[in-house]
Write a structure and sequence with these properties.
This protein has 3 domains: 238 residues, Rossmann fold; 81 residues, Luciferase, Domain 3 (Luciferase, domain 3), CATH 2.30.38.10; 102 residues, GMP Synthetase, Chain A, domain 3. 31% of the residues lie in helices and 24% in strands. The protein contains 16 helices and 26 strands. The strands form 6 sheets. Strands 2-1-10-9-11-12-13-14-15 form a 9-stranded mixed β-sheet, with helices on both faces. Strands 16, 17, 19, 20 and 21 form a 5-stranded antiparallel β-sheet that branches. The protein has a 4-stranded parallel β-sheet with strand order 4-3-5-6. β9, α9 and β10 form a beta-alpha-beta unit.
């Protein structure tokens, strides 16, 4: 295979390119998790052996292969092996409850579950029904389950599988925190090809050395992991993030690319030894998945080598916006502009399109939209918005404004918007005022039911280290800066805001805390 020519195609053979890199760069490092490292020749051979065994076990084309555990070389091999076999990788969220995980496994239809010792023990102890999926261990073998090395086909095995078609399923990503039937977001090979290849030839090459510290079950991580793999680079996988470990690893490997969520940028930049580390090899730093303040972007631009690119989008697809912060330092309050081939509109609560400059819900469309939620066509339809021509767009779930230059400012989440006394209140506006108060390190605002107003905004604040907050004085100070309809009805201290694995504040948890306290 001519790799360069394949990468210039509108749609190419993703698994085939991985195999081609094994021949072109057999001795070059491909995967490293801090405990083990394999080169491209080993990666290609092991992916083939995993794929061959999956097929021998009865895996059907398009069938899911479930993966559950801490990110590692073995995890990445299972993921790539599933795709190579013509199957569909289904990485499961480690933070989900055993019941949620059992639901995800059943929904996926997987006949294989690649799992590590810790998660398997947790699931077995919970007593949930895990169905009949065959367990293959990602780390050490168990008495009744082989490890991945002992299970895979013999050396030299090559799977007999046709190249993927554009519409074939590449992966299923399950929404985190679901309490009922999980929503499995299906991405096609065409979608992943466009996301990993189109426009990336100038950003990635076989010399790319990416360090990744978010989980492989997250689309956040895949947005850099997959382009690194398809361009023949090295991916350094961290099982768990810690600032000191990240800084040392990035320095030692001479990292060129990374994906970090805002809270990770915050922890790295506040680490006392940040400036003592040599990060001069860094070319591009990406950020996505949670609000990234203009102040934090500015600090990253000042102190952190390499370009800074914020990506706005959602796992389901729709529109993707990018802000090249190093090129647009006057637009740090935005998430950038829609990338080439992506479109965005702003609509009101009734779905009517609004004129430029208006505040409303964002809808978008692009070549990188999900195929749909697995087994849930009704949920898929809830995501959809149709324009006057009947064309399909996805609701992004965010409230935003597009400025005169086409840059998009996110005001808040549509589902988090508070309607108090008939007025729309955007928590982000209130959170920004809270964050400017002396002694406040972190803050969040949620809406709670109110007999008088329907809903009322309530704040949570984290005190900066060594600071003691006078909540009554703080509440009075904040409300003096807010409009009459925006004022907070209460403030609550909290040691740390609950966050997801990619740094999003879990506002459902905050609401639950208020309900529990009131009860």
């Amino acid at each position: 295979m001519d790799i360069k020519a394949e990468l210039e195609q509108e749609f190419g053979n993703w698994p085939g390119i991985v195999a081609a890199w094994g021949k072109a760069r057999p001795d070059a490092p491909a995967l490293d998790d801090g405990h083990s490292q394999i080169n491209w020749g080993e990666l290609s051979a092991r992916v083939d052996r995993i794929a061959a065994q999956l097929i021998a076990d009865g895996l059907q084309r398009g069938q899911a292969v479930a993966i559950l555990g801490t990110t590692s070389v073995a995890y990445a091999l299972a993921y790539l092996g599933a795709v190579r076999a013509g199957g569909c990788a289904a990485p499961l969220t480690t933070s989900a409850t055993p019941r949620q995980l059992a639901n995800m496994l059943a929904d996926s239809g997987a006949i294989h579950l690649f799992i590590d010792t810790e998660k398997r023990a947790e699931l077995i102890a919970s007593g949930v029904d895990l169905g009949t999926a065959r367990h293959v261990m990602l780390d050490a073998p168990a008495a009744d389950a082989p490890d991945i090395s002992g299970w895979m086909a013999a050396e030299g095995a090559v799977p007999d599988v046709a190249p993927p078609a554009p519409g074939d399923a590449f992966n299923i990503i399950y929404s985190s925190g679901t309490t009922g039937t999980p929503k499995g977001i299906v991405h096609s090979h065409a979608m992943r090809w466009r996301q990993s290849v189109a426009g990336f030839q100038s950003i990635y090459s076989e010399q790319a050395r990416a360090i990744l510290s978010t989980p492989l079950y997250s689309n956040t991580t895949l947005a850099v992991f997959l382009p690194t793999m398809v361009h023949g680079g090295l991916a350094r996988l961290m099982g768990r993030f810690d600032a000191a470990g990240w800084l040392q690893a990035a320095q030692d490997m001479r990292a060129t690319h990374t994906m970090l969520v805002p809270v990770q940028y915050q922890r790295l930049l506040s680490h006392p030894d940040f400036d003592a580390h040599d990060l001069s090899s860094m070319q591009i730093k990406f950020c996505t998945s949670a609000p990234f303040s203009a102040e934090l972007k500015a600090e990253a631009l000042r102190r952190f080598p390499g370009g800074l690119v914020e990506i706005y989008g959602m796992t389901e697809g729709g529109v993707v916006c990018m802000l090249q912060a190093h090129n647009f330092p006057d637009k740090l309050h935005t998430v950038g502009q829609p990338v080439k081939g992506h479109e965005l509109k702003v609509v009101d609560e009734k779905g009517n399109e609004l004129p430029p400059g208006s505040k409303g819900e964002i809808v978008g469309r692009s070549p990188t939209m999900m195929s749909g939620y697995k087994n849930q066509p009704d949920k898929t339809r809830e995501m959809e918005w149709r324009d006057a021509n009947g064309d399909l767009w996805f609701k992004m779930g965010d409230i935003g404004i597009v400025d005169e230059d086409g840059f998009v400012q996110i005001v808040g989440r549509a589902k988090d918007m508070i309607i108090s006394g008939g007025f729309n209140i955007y928590p982000k506006d209130l959170e920004e005022v809270l964050m400017l108060q002396p002694g406040v390190a972190d803050a969040a605002v949620v809406g709670m039911p109110s007999e008088r107003w329907g809903e009322t905004p309530v704040g949570f604040v984290v005190a900066a280290p060594g600071q003691a907050l006078d909540l009554d004085a703080l509440l009075a100070s904040v409300n003096a800066e807010l409009g009459k309809t925006q004022r907070l009805s209460a403030l609550h201290p909290i040691d740390e805001l609950p966050r997801s694995h990619i740094g999003k504040i879990l506002k459902t948890d905050l609401r639950a805390m208020l309900v529990e306290t009131a009860g």
